[in-house]
Amino acid sequence: MDVDGGRQRQYGVTPVEVMASMSGLDFIRAMFAGELPAPPIMQTIEPFDEVAELGLIVMYSQPGLRHYNPIGSVHGGYAATLLDSAMGLAVQSMLKPGQGYTTLEFKISFIRGMSQDSGVIRTEGRTLNVGRRAATAEARITDRGGRLLAHATTTCLVFDLPVGTASAP
């Protein structure tokens, strides 16, 4: 499936100095536009038609046979990766240059199973609150009919990125 208009997506890790030089929203938009590499974990998810606004992330993907667990349905890790990514990126979209975040915890509820016949699914992440040290967000996965498949909430730690500090030998 050619979901990126013929563009070959690059995967990798952006240097902290580059990330720290940009607002969270600018960083995410550059990543979605292919100007910066997408995180390697997304090679298994292959999201497309990604949108980033302040406090809001939307991305689409299509579950396939490669996402199946031993019992013949899409593994919960597929939904967990999408939800965690959408919530984390929603938090990141609100950060100033020089700030970073990490997930402290998240809770998922699986509502309906997915299969390779589910078609394109939509994942939407939204911030609930972003403070100086902590942020909360929520995310939902829905099918093409708008039915809820899974939802989650998270708490993230917000911190200053360690840029320009020498590490101990």
Description:
By secondary structure, this protein is an alpha+beta fold. The protein has a single domain (16-160), classed as Hotdog Thioesterase (Thiol Ester Dehydrase, Chain A, Roll). Helix content is 18%, strand content 33%. It has helices spanning 16-20, 24-32, 76-92; strands spanning 48-53, 56-61, 99-110, 121-130, 134-142, 148-160. Strands 1-2-4-5-6-3 form a 6-stranded antiparallel β-sheet, with helices on one face. β4 and β5 form a beta hairpin. The longest helix has 17 residues, at 76-92. It is globular and about 50 Å long. It starts with 15 loop residues before the first helix and ends in a 9-residue tail after the last strand.
Order of helices and strands: HHEEHEEEE
Name given to the CATH architecture: Roll
State the strand order across the main sheet: 1-2-4-5-6-3
Largest sheet: 6 strands, antiparallel
Q: Which class of secondary structure composition applies to the elements? A: alpha+beta
CATH topology: Thiol Ester Dehydrase, Chain A
What is the number of beta strands?
6
What would CATH call the class? Alpha Beta
Strand content: 25-35%
Average pLDDT confidence is 92
**pLDDT under 50 segments (min length 5)?**
1-5
Give a brief rundown of this model.
This is PaaI family thioesterase. By secondary structure, this protein is α+β, with helices and mostly antiparallel strands.
